[in-house]
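Structure tokens please, single chain.
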Amino acid sequence: MWSPIPTVLTLLLAVSGSVATNDKDHRKSCVVKSGGSNATDDAPAILKAFKKCGHKGRVVFEPTNYYVNSAMNIDWLKDVDVDIYGTLLWSTDIQYWLKNSMDVGYQNQSTALIIGGDNVRINGHGTGTFDGNGDYWYQWIRQQPNTSNYPGRPHAVTFGNLTNSVVKGLTFLRSQMWTMSIIYSHNVLLDSILVNNTGNWAQSSNTDGADTIRSSHITFNNWTVYNGDDSLSMKANSTDITIKNCKFHNGLGIAMGSIGQYNGQYETIERVTAENIEYVNTLHAFYIKTWTADQNGYPPNGGGGGLGFASGMTLKNLTTTGLRGAAFAISQCTRFSGAPGVGNCTNSEFQIRNVEIDGLYGDSKSARVASLQCSAVAPCTNITMVNVGLHLTSGAPAADFPTSASSDPIRNLFFANGKLPFNMRPQKHACDACSRRKIKCDGNKPCSAWRQGRSANVISALRASQIGNIHGSIAQRDKNAGPPRSPEYHRTPGLLSSDTIDACSNFFFADFYSTLPILQREMLDYSGDIMSTTTETYYLIVSFCAFIIIQTGSVHHTSSNPDGSLLQSDVGYGQALINEALEARRSANPLIQPSIQAVVTSFLLYGSYRSLKDQNKAWFFLREATTLYMAGIPEGNAQGSLASNQLFWLLLITERPYSIRKHRPLTLLLSSSSPDIAELGKETAASGFVHLVNLFRPFDELFLGLWNGTLSACSVDWLVEKLFDVAYVLIDVIAYTPPSAPEPPISDLGPKDYLTYILSLVAKLRGGEDRFLPLLQEKISQVLPNFLNPLTWSLPLASFLENPASPSEKFSPGEGEGWTGHDMEDHSFRQPSMS
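Here you go.
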């Protein structure tokens, strides 16, 4: 390992500003030269140095000021040492940063600097400083209606896709917003870091010390943080986080969350350990905050309705001085501040479990040791506090352990071996219906009082209005109202084994997920765990396995008929699973309250019936999926969760080719409220899915109207532009297909055949040869250099392409042949893996 002490050669390089080879470890070194004043933007010089020496080299910042006036993305680093002896000072051009800060990829947050790569070693040597000039931001944000997550307000630095790396010896002063966001990063040590976001002449706000997102094995050691918000915060899918030997001043303490902000999206926080932590004048030592189940608005300041859990949090040897609130707090009441009314603190479906605090000593200004507000829907479980010794700053013991919840949501809650008297005072909250009626509520969802007397609220209202002679008829009508009751449903014992579920899951994520991102592994694992208790989850898993088994023929079963005889074939087993799923759906009736799970189930049933060549049922369930999506997903979902956004585009690229082939109308139409495809591309692991979306977007309702004969005419210019759009994206799709992808049979057409034929049509149509064909040929030369002079090829075009303008079934190759690799309507299922 290279020594942190600068060598003579490094100092000579600092003087000369040259690029040389270090005799000690033979690394090429680049010394960044400062422009000397804020009139010169040093960002270009910094980027140049990293481009030269960011791969198995060293980048050195001299002990001087560097003026950063523009955003920098440095995410290509590999085996590099970065020595920072000076100060990087960010400009105060607020309007520039609002327009040019870079997307983080979570909660619509943005950043001024991205650093990423593998085996990166950043050393501030105790003097290296990132100065965000935050006073200007703190003063400016106080003048805005939204003083928190203002769009475009940047984090100081984002470590994105950083792996096997060390960041140490740095100081962060007055960060613009969050100091550090850590996303998609793994195996990173952050050591000996000082964060001081105390404003010189303006009070700071929303200046978290650091936030982890979708990252694992992150260690915070020897941190000192002065700020006005979360000292450290673990957000979505943070796992194996270690915090030790840290001291936090004035902020809110260590936070889990907020989490559960994305409606229908499954997120977790797992295995967080904190040890030897000192708190001075913080609000809490440790607190957990989740959003309610009610979605109000969209991130960064709105949201709700998320799923998942936080588990395995252990904190030891905590010391407090002047604590301002409850040492340990749980709140599942987070909601959009602009939403009217009071939030429902009992309906969050995000569960908190397995929390242990062992050793909490010091003094507090608050009489509360713990304040726990847990959901009644997903109760907190296994919460333990032991060896607690807190006293008020006056010297008296802090005696209260209040909880606030419904229906006994705290289970296995222990306060043992402490110096404080034990005093539990549950404060139950009634549901909205019982609160209005002023009756006793058990907190269940729905509560038993509501189930037993649904008409009581109506009768009370009528009595209040002095309408006395119609009580009986109204009550009877209300009693008979509501969804029809389904026959009692009983699951088929032993139909679906855990081994079969695992096999289907492994096959899906290995071969399908890149172009069919309909389920997340965490969500699928969780659904498998709870399917025995939840009907909706059960028929989702059963439909999923039916889809995989029928579609692929590669996952085999070991199940039997109810009479003990072995099912004869995998297809027969798949059909048995379909029947089971349909029976379970009838008992739950997903039409009452559409959800993402219900939409996914309908889609999987469509895929199964499509493989079975039952076109009528396939169309029924595809149309049901699109209709449920529109009925169950709020308008304006462009800012919605990743799961619902992916689902929207998947339905679109499935429905459009199916509608072309079967001459069906479109249900899912694009509008200003449709999800942003650019955001999908940032989040989705495989960009092949985005290419497929772009390929089928041009086939809109106007095109289908012409194709199906409901519209009778179109302009030549429109037709040429439409062909150009399709050809342009098809080039990207072909370029993205792996070389190992199987070629179609000689008798069939492949993607290049279709592209060549479209090019020939463009060349023949008026204006196409002069205007569009050169653009397409230039695109081909850039991304498909081996695809030269395509118009000179003599292709064995099939006879069904000789009359391309006709909407004849001859245009659809492979009719009745099931799903094939190049079938235009089945791209999302059989496309080769693009991992």
